[in-house]
Each structure stands twice: as structure tokens, then as C-alpha cells.
Give the backbone structure.
Amino acid sequence: MLKGKSIVVTGGGSGLGAAASKAFAREGAKIAVLDLDEAAAKHTANEIMAEGGEAIFQKVNVVDKKSVFLAGDIIAEQFGGIDVWMNCAGVSKILPFLDCTEEIWDFMLDINLKGGFFCCQSAVTHMLKSNGGVIINLSSQSGKKAGSHYQAYCASKFGVIGLTQSIALEFAKQGIRANAICPGVVQTPMWDKQVHEYAKKRNLQPEEVMPYFCKTIPMGRVASYKNFTDMAIFLASDKSEYMTGQALNLTGGSIMF
């Protein structure tokens, strides 16, 4: 469905970003893997090439506008343009509201929201030159419904949806579509790092966290990587050509609005 398309994925070195990068490549796309961790980005690109796909990688700090725009320019020149830009770079922290420092707040908002803003600006700049393109932003179920101990994360992910809708409205007539994916729980490396924080919040043992989620999700399980990549492929492809400004839930029924 994506044969010949050039796709940029931030946060492509691990987790959902790496999964999306490899899934896009299997659909025939050329992939630019961007990540602050250069070794991780290279690893994802090498995995794609080992399967016969086409990929490049770059170390990029999404909070550094110059770094983001330089990467966009290099990719557009090498690939002959940018068709799809997916923003998966992100961070999360679970802690009580009064324990959230200004430094933690700024860190979360910078990476999750300002970084996405810079990336979208770079994407739009190149997509306007080629009369269209697709932006896919990663929000969260926490961007639809707030939860305690997620103050900065919720603020950033609600913001991602607003950013996505604003871009969709402004550039619809120029053929640029922007949508967001709002996953619930997916057992990624980021979740593994914060499972102790969530366990503390719920007064659980770390090994009890995932079974707890499965009990609270109507479909009885957390999302798989394939659930996520199937939605990403749909949004990146022409199958969703009349869809823009949407924030699609991927929560197993936990969120229905």
C-alpha cells in the first residue's frame, strides 16, 4: 500500500517508532529513521535493510529546531521529497501532581509537544513543495481522558491533538492530511521503564500491573504492536485519503470518544 513512498519516523529507534518503521518498509516505503539514540536508529535501519528494504538513519534531537529542519532537508534531497512524517518520539513520567517539578514539566512538554511542533513544521515545509502529504502524530488515551499522576503527560498529549487538528484545518486544501493515533497500553520499552511508578500509584506489585490493565480493558488485553502498525499503515496510505484532523483511539474499548 505504500510502495515508493518516502516516510520519516521520529523515535524510530525503539518501541512503537521502530515497529512502525519496519511495518512501513514491508509495505514498500523508503524509511528515514530518526532518533536521539543514533545506535538505536542505525539498528532499526539495518533491520529494515536486512529484510531487503530501503532505509537511512539520522541522530536528531526533536527539541532542536535546527536539527529537525536539517534532517528534513537531507531526507527530502535523498528521497526526492517527503510523503509521510510520523512523530513517535516521546517520554512519559508517572508521579503525584505536587511532585512534578518545573524541570519535569518542561522536559515532557518540550519533547512530546514542542518537538512534534518542530517536526510538523519541517514536514509541512516539504509537503507544500510536492502538493500534499501525510502527518501522523502520536497522542495517547491520556490525550483524550486525563488520569491522576499524569499531569505533564496529559497536558502534552491533549496538546498533540490540538496541534494535529489545527494543521489539518490549515492545510487541507493543499493536500496535507494530519491525524493522530491515541493508543492505550502497549507493552513498550517506555512502559517497562515506568511500570514501578504505575505500581506505586495503584499500590500493586510491578508484576501485577499488566494483569490489572487486562482486567480493566473491555477487550481483555493490551494493544499489540501489530494493532498499532496496522492503524499507522492505514493512515499513511490512500485508504484514508478523506480522513484528516482525527484522533483515533486504539484502546480496546477503554476510551470511546
